[in-house]
Amino acid sequence: MHPIAWSDREVRILDQTRLPHEEIYLNIATIDEMAEAIRMLRVRGAPLIGISAAMGLAAAAEREVENGDLTATWVYGAADVLEGTRPTAVNLRWALERMRRVTAEETASGKCAREVSEALHAEAQRVWDIEAGMCRSIGEYGSQLIQPGFTILTHCNAGKLATGGLGTALAPIYVAFQEEEKGIDVIADETRPLRQGARLTAWELAEAGIPVRVIADGAAASLMAAGEIDMVITGADRIAANGDTANKIGTYAVALLANAHGIPFFIAAPRSTIDPALATGDLIPIEYRGPEELDVAEGAEVVNPAFDVTPAELISAIVTDGGVLQQPLPKSIERLLAQTAETTGMT
Known about the structure:
By secondary structure, this protein is α/β, with parallel strands linked by helices. It has helices at about 30-40, 45-65, 70-85, 90-110, 115-145, 160-165, 170-180, 195-205, 220-225, 250-260, 330-345, and strands at about 5, 10-15, 25-30, 150-155, 185-190, 210-215, 230-235, 240, 245-250, 265-270, 275, 305-310, 315-320, 325.
């Protein structure tokens, strides 16, 4: 499974809107095409959005060189267009800030347009490598929380399709099942309204041979009450400095249910998902999507938030590539960022 790849001054993506029934790949050549792919969820998941934007910018820059039009102003404008596609996931801003910084450094040192383009390509690949490496570490740290025979509930999709690597929430599951042979199984929330759990999580886990069952979102409470779920693990699109976490709509409800039933609730995310500039989750911008995503009676109005925020106090721990962050989360996050800011390029 390769949700993204380089393809001769273009970026090849797996169109995730067509899964699970069709595996259709698209070649993205321009900034507008990549912006449309991100906005329409052809590529999705916080880490993969950042990777896609960086790669799309680099590929388009190569074409600008051929046309003799590549300038720093063009790069900054293109980055602004891509950054405006989806406001909640911070990985998008993180990746594009790296691309802006490289452009500024190369331009200040007097590099020609082709050298700037080559530096952008190298930086986009570095973004991908960093995210993939962080996913691997998340898998290894997170698998330590999983006991043999556990049944794990997850919400939305935070696996290979969402990251360009092993995944975030699904990475510990892959490691625990495939490498440590712990005999676990997974329950995937359908994840309304776009059914990423039913379409994407179920598809990729089934492809990997991992036992997976799909439930309607509203069924989670009854399964928890029946003792059928041992732990919950989800991904994240942005984590505030205090540990409040934005993820796909419905995650907050799952966290409330898990706490009510005494079930540990974990977040899995790379350091690039942490936004230390936001003190609390109240400040995380929430994307609202169009009414066409919900099937409702004519004349009814639609409110369609794509994400909600889970308060830090409902989170048992956050699994990152730098280790498992325990409560109190604000201190754990501060420590992690202080120790690793230079490695990740975050400040």
